Amino acid sequence: MTRGAPERGTADVAGEPGSVDVAGERGAAEATGGQGAADVAGERRQLIGIAYRLLGSVAEAEDAVQEAYARWYAQPRGRREAVASPGAWLTTVTGRICLDVLGSARARRERYVGAWLPEPLPDHGEWAGVGRGTETADPADRIALDESVTMAFLVVLESMTPAERVAFVLHDVFRYSFPEIAGIVGRTPGACRELASSARRRMRAERAPATSAAGRAEVVRHVKEAWEAKDITALVGLLDPDAVMTADGGGLVGTVLRPVEGGARIAQYMIAIADKAPGLRLLERSVAGAPGLVAQHGGVTATVAAFDALDGRATRIWVVRNPEKLRLWTPS
């Protein structure tokens, strides 16, 4: 890919289940030779979007992209000028860095205290530092909030092998061709096609049928009202009998270490939390592009919860309490 990116293959995935089209982000990646520094820097939004979906962490995504740029500028000027498509070069290097990170992440997450969940994204206007010209606002501008960043989508990505995840995200989300992906994962285009197909089957099998955003918002609103009223009967009625709640505290704050299963048990847990946290303020907010709840104490975000719902009831709740994953949720 250092001498030019192969033609993008998109026709073969049109309308495939599990496919999410954010190809509009890719204009910068179609770079040609002779790019200036500003054009190369303009690839950053595309790269951050790819790296976040691959790693599920804004901080790790930024680190991966920063490393790719460091490798780009470490090359002699003549070698950089010989690259016909710097965008393709940067994408290849970022993808390989993410693949390495994903490989080591499995071992790290085995040592993680409790469940590990992806870092949830707030709406752009809700990011800490927005409007102040600070670097903190940058990631929001570089990651499009769409179906491919919802908690439900990212959690399924976590169940894939690193190679499956890279092949699926690059092909089905960002519309890279299999020859391009082959150059990143070090396999043949045919093998990459099989990886993406396997990932697509996993996505279809593990993702529950989704309700509309309006339907989810209504469920979230009713859950908020019942939780604030400490109405356990209402909460039980709003939770699917087979609902599952997964919480991520990272060992830094108190939370359940294993998923809580069953609507009645989840409702009891929520009421217990409300009793132990007087003064907690609940806010309806967009969490990773979908309706969710944010709990604040003294103006500081303590919890971000994402929901899946079906037939008027919450089926999955993902609760992020690890403060390292909430740094973008509290204005500084």
Characteristic key phrases:
single chain; about 325 residues; alpha+beta; 6 strands
Structural class based on helices, strands and sheet pairing? alpha+beta
Order of helices and strands: HHHHHHHHHHHHEEHEEEE
Mean pLDDT: 83
Helix percentage: 40-55%
Tell me the Rg in angstroms.
21 Å
| Total beta-strand segments | 6
Q: In this structure, how is the largest beta sheet organized?
A: 6 strands, mixed
Distance between the amino and carboxyl termini: 41 Å
Output the strand order for the largest sheet: 2-1-6-5-4-3
Low-confidence stretches: 1-34, 129-137
Please give the count of helices.
Answer: 13
- Which outline best applies? elongated
Q: Beta fraction of the residues?
A: 5-15%
Description:
With 332 residues, the chain is of the alpha+beta class. The chain is 46% helix and 14% strand. A six-stranded mixed sheet has the order 2-1-6-5-4-3. Helix 9 (178-185) crosses helix 10 (189-206). The radius of gyration is 21 Å and the shape is elongated. The protein starts with 36 loop residues before the first helix and ends in a 12-residue tail after the last strand.
Characterize this entry briefly.
The protein is of the alpha+beta class.
